[in-house]
TrEMBL record:
<feature type="domain" description="ATP-grasp">
    <location>
        <begin position="107"/>
        <end position="285"/>
    </location>
</feature>
<dbReference type="InterPro" id="IPR004666">
    <property type="entry name" value="Rp_bS6_RimK/Lys_biosynth_LsyX"/>
</dbReference>
<keyword id="KW-0436">Ligase</keyword>
<keyword id="KW-0479">Metal-binding</keyword>
<dbReference type="GO" id="GO:0005524">
    <property type="term" value="F:ATP binding"/>
</dbReference>
<dbReference type="Pfam" id="PF18030">
    <property type="entry name" value="Rimk_N"/>
</dbReference>
<keyword id="KW-0648">Protein biosynthesis</keyword>
<keyword id="KW-0460">Magnesium</keyword>
<dbReference type="InterPro" id="IPR013651">
    <property type="entry name" value="ATP-grasp_RimK-type"/>
</dbReference>
<keyword id="KW-0464">Manganese</keyword>
<dbReference type="GO" id="GO:0016879">
    <property type="term" value="F:ligase activity, forming carbon-nitrogen bonds"/>
</dbReference>
<dbReference type="Pfam" id="PF08443">
    <property type="entry name" value="RimK"/>
</dbReference>
<dbReference type="InterPro" id="IPR041107">
    <property type="entry name" value="Rimk_N"/>
</dbReference>
<dbReference type="GO" id="GO:0006412">
    <property type="term" value="P:translation"/>
</dbReference>
<keyword id="KW-0547">Nucleotide-binding</keyword>
<dbReference type="GO" id="GO:0005737">
    <property type="term" value="C:cytoplasm"/>
</dbReference>
<dbReference type="InterPro" id="IPR011761">
    <property type="entry name" value="ATP-grasp"/>
</dbReference>
Length: 286
């Protein structure tokens, strides 16, 4: 690999580690915003970003997918598909990013493969959402798209359900309602690369939300064989070449709650001896 491109809004820790590792290997590395793409049909170069021809890159690593209008988001994904058609490798593949971005679709694929997920109801009408709340009781309301725990609300009484559902209804949004599974303010993140679990950690939160960006602490965790198998299968089902698999344990077993196609590894790296960035770059150079 001679030229590596990274799609990212900012030079966060993960991006800086990738750039540094690329420099060690004498790989030319450039960072691009996914919001400044230009594509051409019947003319060259086919795909541009900040006047650079993306068709000249060996690999493009997608490290962020910015919010935008429906047209903007569809266009950006179309461009990633176009780049793949032009034989430029995207990491993760565009199809995997699309699947994992949609919580409902991603979880439905897991269930279809026999991977345990929490009971979930997705609907457009408020009355259907109210029925789901009465059925499930204690629930977590999530945005269909999003990460880092942003927009997630736990609802366990009728008054709160009324207020939250009214706000969602007013915004013409989808009701994504998932049964709250008691998990002791802890969850597990497994990092899968090329069909293997590279490392895993336990995250201990200050509240029921266990995201590191929300103050949770990370510690080493030895993944049991059944969780390892489910994590690898989950990554494969979504078409991911690497993925962050989020798992919660309860008294009646474990559940996979999310597959992240753009996983960070800063917190995980602090809990293990595996050089995750090196492993990623080794994989990309194969």
């Amino acid at each position: 690999m001679e030229k590596l491109g990274i799609f990212s809004r900012k030079r966060d820790w993960n991006v800086r580690k990738l750039v540094k590792e690329a420099e060690k290997r004498n790989i030319e590395c450039s960072i691009f915003p996914l919001t400044e793409l230009v594509v051409k049909l019947g003319n060259e170069p086919k795909v541009l970003c900040q006047d650079s021809s993306l068709g000249e890159f060996d690999t493009l690593v997608v490290r962020s997918t910015p919010l935008g209008s429906a047209e903007q988001i569809v266009f950006r994904m179309d461009v990633l598909h176009r780049l793949e058609n032009l034989e430029v490798k995207t990491f993760n593949p565009s199809g995997a990013i699309e699947k994992c971005a949609d919580k409902f679709y991603a979880c439905s694929l897991l269930e279809d493969e026999g991977i345990p997920v929490p009971r979930t109801v997705v609907a457009e009408k408020r009355e259907d959402a109210r029925k789901a709340f009465r059925e499930l009781g204690d629930v977590v309301i999530k945005p269909l798209f999003g990460s880092g725990g942003t927009g997630m609300v736990r609802v366990d009484n009728e008054d709160m359900a009324y207020r939250v559902f009214s706000a969602i209804d007013f915004g013409d949004s989808i009701f994504y309602i998932q049964e709250f599974v008691p998990h002791g303010k802890k969850d597990i993140r497994a990092f899968v690369l090329d069909g293997e679990v590279l490392a895993s950690m336990e995250r201990i939160g200050k509240t029921w939300k266990t995201n590191l960006v929300r103050g949770a602490e990370a510690q080493p965790y030895d993944l049991p064989p059944e969780m390892e198998e489910a994590s690898i299968k989950a990554s494969e089902v979504q078409g991911c070449e690497y993925a962050g698999i989020d798992i919660i344990e309860s008294d009646d077993g474990f559940y996979l709650v999310e597959v992240n196609a753009i996983p960070g590894w800063k917190g995980l790296q602090s809990t293990c001896d595996v050089e995750i960035t090196k492993e990623i770059m080794d994989y990309l150079e194969e």
